[in-house]
Amino acid sequence: MKIAFCTLGCKVNQYETQALEQLFTARGHVLVPFEGEADVYIVNSCTVTAVSDKKSRQVVRQARKRAPEATIALCGCYPQTHPSDMDGLPVDLVAGTGDRTQFVALVEEACAKRREKITALDDAMGRRTFELLPAGGLEGRTRAMLKVEDGCVNFCTYCIIPYARGPVRSLPLTDAAAQGSKLAGEGYQELVLTGIEISSWGRDVRDGTSLIDLVETVCAAAPGCRIRLGSLEPRTVTEDFCLRAAKLPNLCPHFHLSMQSGCDEVLKRMNRKYDTARFLESVELLRKSFDRPAVTTDMIVGFPGETEVEFTRSLDFIRRCAFAAMHIFPYSKRPGTPAAAMSGQLPGAVKEERVRRASEIAAQMEEDYLGQFVGRREQVLFEEERDGLWRGHTSRYCQVAASSEENLHNRLRSVQITSVEKDCLLGELLNLENR
């Protein structure tokens, strides 16, 4: 059969889609673009906001309108948390976030039954084991994803994901080493360790191991690959973590720390497990241990009850942290979470205006950070050609653009950085003898 995927949401969803792609092709099926003609259309959904749910519904209905006779399957976080929403959708198969191997067989069954709707949802909170799936990258990608953890028990007041993914489950060290070695052997130049909350890796094992043990294991198993970490909780960054991480030559000095707010009162309402002092301690430890590390973050503005004074504190705090890059979002009400029922919900115009103000500061900080690399030589993993320039990223995840008539896809090359243009470094490819 011809199978088409549409993936919404986070890197974990992307990872699980590529795993499903491998499972389908291993059974003789063929992958085709989602916009084209297929026998089966699979929507791997996201439910982080109500807008995400709406997008999933739209994609399903568009696929049904385009291909009335095809089999349509909806899986992922949206049906896992909102099973009642599935009743009105034109889908043949509904599945959640568990048992992805069985999902392949269910798709084949749905095709055979033709319009007998199949629903396969478990209780996410009852899961206790990590589902081992084939690691890899989406077609044409230069970096592979290695999912090392699933689940979350932080229960932030704005987030529904713990109910979609269940408790923490960790990929065993032996499997992490085997998958890392396999991916390196397949020619990937970079591996990204991803999960719902990778800082909690090992929490379920209870043998004293933690995330840094996993990082050391994967770095050793794939010594020729860059190893990049997914989003970290600030509590992960300790003196021991930094001391051991700094000794790993292939670990990328790029650390994405989940901040969400730079105001202690807002962090308490969010039920985050740290305050600004602890967050800043993590930033300072990283800068003490690594040369010009890229410390990046997320920020939610306009959280319920956020006053102008609290928002101003957040702006002052991000200036102190001097982030290399930021993702800034207006708070979006997620029905079913405590924050959605909080008083002090702010108007959209206020949230958008705060996004603008924070973004202006973030853009200046990013420009200042990138400016440090002008005149330096950087190793760049090139990914694609766009607008006449080859583009890729340094180990610090700085985007670089350079001119070349060679095909640089998935190649590491040395580049002399010459200038900064917005959020991108411009440079000149060095000759082979000058690398």
Write the layout of secondary structure elements.
Blueprint: E1 2-7, H1 11-26, E2 30-31, E3 40-45, H2 50-66, E4 71-76, H3 77-81, E5 93-95, H4 100-113, E6 118-120, E7 143-150, H5 161-165, E8 169-170, H6 173-185, E9 190-195, H7 211-221, E10 226-229, H8 239-245, E11 254-260, H9 264-270, H10 276-289, E12 294-301, H11 308-321, E13 325-330, H12 348-371, E14 377-386, E15 389-393, E16 399-402, E17 412-421, E18 424-429
Parallel strand pairs: 1-2, 1-3, 3-4, 4-5, 5-6, 7-9, 9-10, 11-12, 12-13, 16-18
Antiparallel strand pairs: 7-8, 14-15, 14-17, 15-16, 17-18
Helix pairs in contact: 6-7, 11-12
Distance between the termini: 47 Å
Shape: globular
Mean pLDDT comes to: 95
Number of helices in the DSSP assignment: 12
CA gyration radius, whole angstroms? 22 Å
Structural class: alpha/beta
- Runs in which pLDDT lies below 50 for 5 or more consecutive residues are none
Q: In percent, how much strand structure appears in the residues?
A: 15-25%
Helix content: 25-40%
Order of strands in the sheet with most strands: 2-1-3-4-5-6
Could you give the order of the helices and strands?
EHEEHEHEHEEHEHEHEHEHHEHEHEEEEE
Annotation, overall tally of beta strands: 18
